[in-house]
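1st attempt posting a full record on here, be nice pls
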Amino acid sequence: MPLTYSTLKAFILFSWAWDIGLVLLMLIIHLKNKPISKPRGASTFPHHRFAFLIPAHNEEKVIGPLLDSINRQSYPKELYRVYVSADRCTDKTAEVAKSKGATVLERWEGRSGKTWNIRYALENIPLEAYDYLVIVDADNLVAPDFLREVDRFLQENPTTKALQSYLDTKNPFDTWVTKAIAVAYWISNFAWFRSREILGLSATLGGTGMVLSTTLLRERGWKAESLTEDLELHVDLVLQGERVRYLETARVYDEKPLDLRASYRQRVRWYQGHWYLLFTKAPLVLGSLLARKGNRPLLLFDTLLYLFAPARYLASLALLLGFLADSLVGAHFGKVGAYLTFLVLAYGTLSGAIASLARFGKLRLDVLEAGLYVVPYGFVWFPVAVHALLKAHNQGYWVKTPHERTVRVEELEEGTLPEHEEPMGNPGGKR
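the predicted structure (as tokens):
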């Protein structure tokens, strides 16, 4: 038993050291002024043809602003087209999409869920007419120069098969939940995605803001069957010797759930798919690593560690609680409370500071305050991880996250992040 505990502890500590080490290496490289991409506004002659795919299910309240943001791209209109795959929509999603000039694919049969909707759409979109497919969720907004930046990057990196854009938040200051999520995303963009792009590893796909080669899609098809189709595709690419690139100058704004219940359901679904892929894909990644297939062992190793993320989280929390219990045995209750309060405040303040500097280039009081919610929100992942583990075998039941937050991309690009406005007639959003 002590050996098992020691082995677990060594694995967890090593995995965290790996992640922190990558960030430190990235910071060193960054301080030496090695950019990972040209600044926004660098000009190139438009070259690539793009198809936008928007999987949607009853999104009439949010899809209009998204389509407006796509229609206002600073990119030749003749080089891109928008497809909305309306899956069993009983509202006016299809009508709104058509009024904005999108080609609507209506789906009424087959399994429900995003991955199956994407599969249906890819069977009906003429992929040969485009160079790349851009997948964005219906609740998103796309920055005006998104296609221009992606086109520039692809011209500079023509062998790119998969590209992940910068995932921002369109409603970061709505509630304490969205504040915590926004801080986590801003840190992840800097510490996770940026470090892996700089160091030649594979950035993970984020489910939206994904740019995929149509040649790749025509050759392999859409094989994803889990609730986390983005992670599944990412792992498959790594197993093929490819890596996901990251472009921080192409920005997509994603809507975050307003309350804890909606966020909990969403994250159970994500971890449900993550656990499933740990059980099904990790042996393949480990086998490739041990067999030394390909010339990128670090890429395989980094992907393997990420597949263990749910297990790492549970084990890390258990070790942390054990450490606190051992350290505080016999201590006065007041001292224990003061110690834990200090840890929460210190971690939250540091998180807010890093997020503020990474996203805005300066310290902002509203982001520092948002950082204080990171730790309370982080503990929610414990029941999420356990709940998802118990449901990991079921990859066929998809629960939609409600989206009702209407924001224009102009507000976000101008830097005036909007305050929360309750949907009319339904405070707090749909449940």
